[in-house]
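Retro notes
What went well: the complex prediction finally ran end to end.
Inputs used:
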Amino acid sequence: MSYGKKLEAVLENPQRMKTIKRVFYALLALLVVGDFFIPRAHPHFLWDKIPTFSSVYGFLSCVVIIIVSKFIGHSGGLMVRENYYDEPSGETFVETPVTPKDPDTEGGHSHP
Amino acid sequence: MNWIHPGLILIFGAILVPFLKGKAKQAYLVALPAIAFFDLLLMTPGQYGVFPFLGQELVFGKVDKMSLVFGYVFTIMGVIGMVYALHVKQDGEHIAALVYAGSSLGVTFAGDYFTLFVFWEGMAFSSVFLIWYRGKEAWWPGFRYILVHAFSGVALLGGIVVYAVTQKTIAFGPNQAHGLAFWLILMGFLVNAAVPPLHAWLADAYPEATVTGSVFLCAFTTKTAVYVLVRAFSGTELLIYMGVAMALYGVVYAVLENDIRRLLAYHIISQVGYMVAGVGMGTELAQNGAISHAFSHILYKSLLFMGSGAVIYVTGRQKLTELGGLYKTMPITMSLYMIGGFSISAFPLFSGFVSKSMVVSAAGEAHIAWAYLLLTLASAGTFLHTGLKLPWYIFFAKDAGIKAHEPPKNMLVAMALGAFLCVAIGVVPGTLYNLLPHPVDYHPYTADHVWGALQMLLFTALGFFLLLKKLDPEPTISIDTDWVYRMGGRGLMWAANNPIAAWEAFITEAYQNVVIQPMKRFVALCRRFDVGVIDGAVNGIGRGVFGGSWYSNLFENYVVYGFINITGYANHVAARLFRRLQTGSVHNYAMIVIVGIFFLVNLYLMFREQITAVVTALR
């Protein structure tokens, strides 16, 4: 069985997916609990010593980034339709020639 | 042993590309950057290729640890990029890539500002072809790209000239200048480092380049800029603020982006932000961090661009909204891409973990709490987009039903090379650390660092899956600062068509009435004087001298008439000439005004003393 098919067999199987999810949650729990026992080598700041700080900060970062960015994108008007920059038809630049009245046709000098 | 410039190996080597065919050409393309790499291995620190120039010295080869480490990664990248591009048929694209990589090496080893500037321009003008080879739709993005880089080049050159005049040297090193020279050179560098608001060219142009071209583009321009910043502006505090702002800026835009390579482009900006911030902090740890992060960034970012490029190459689609489910048909591409994704996200055992954390730790050691927190927050964003969002919507999510397959073998081999190096650096960081300019006393694999990083990353993943619905890509584009020159140009056209055209018409009309009509009236008056008064008088005299001699007739006919006609004719010609001056074209008037001002200023400068004397006398 090819690599792709093997992957497909795992990911398209709801039973297997459930197991993967459980392992993921177990990992999260392990990380949180373990953080109480991990010695701090070089704490730079106060919060570096607080257990589970990284978990909370990671989760909050993710949420804040998504919500703030989408808010700026939608309410700040940054996200626009895909053809936003296309030249609207009829507004293309047409050079309008300026024609000064020709003074040469009148008032010239007649030579004998 | 003679010193051979590694950049010139690539640049002059490129000349032979069109004369080779088939396998020989492919071997040659990969061999060139490989030879340059071995050339670097043989180098010993020192100054090479020194030429006297206008009382100064041009230094083509300033070899020290800092230029060597960038040289290594640029040549390695050259090999990877060339392997990835082996299937490309256009010689021009290969030549552009080689000259571009060679120019980057030229900048890296430049020991003076003039040499640096020449290669700086070489980079801009060769790289733009990697965009233009994409075809018609890449014309305008490429054009905007080259305009912005021309701006950067002019700023840099202006700064260099002022620097040379005020500092009496063109040697490239820590920038000691103040005022104009400092700011102009810094601005030239910041454009290439894509620091907002001067960054829009990157996200505008890179996604429009050819599939293979963007792999080269993402490696060289911003990283040479980081290199010159480390050399010249280390410890410039402003750069800390700019770098942190950049890191966040890229993250915000990456949330909004739908084009896969544009999303990655915004993450270049974000990642280069770490390096710029490191340059700003300027400590040994921060410098090492900036340089090592540039090193690993080149490798993992090119891997990401290669992965997404493979998807574009195979499917012809580049929008997240049109992709999905590709892991079934492109599993190898997906896996190699994910190694890049883990590296940029700084997973333990991948390259980003050992380099990015150096910069963040430098912020910690310098006790800049806000930078430390914001850079950590931005790294959550990096994993969120490059490691989760992008692969999720390309390879998983809803199957878009695309009939895909793995890309050509050379692409996979290039990706595998990059992936191998990403993991190697992550597992054995000592090798990279030994290359850094300052001795490294930094240990990334401490228990709390690994544990903290894993918490950050996996809880970011939790947030991603909980908020997945909110992240669904939308078929939009995002307005960035390139709006100013894209829409500004349109505004200029509108202005040219409306107020300026109206003004021009007004000027034309005014000249008609104020100058031309009176001139014509004057000419007509002259004619009347000629015919009525002078002719009359002459005729009268002629008639008075009854039977006057034939000579007087001759005199009248030729001399007097001639004189009169010449006067009238000269008048006529003058009128014609003056009329030509009054073209009514605004730029002509502007030029005349400028020339006039220039003339007056010169006049003033020449006779300044006399004028001052007169003015003081009048007082």
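What we learned: The first helix of chain B runs from residue 6 to 13.
What to try next: split runs per interface for comparison.
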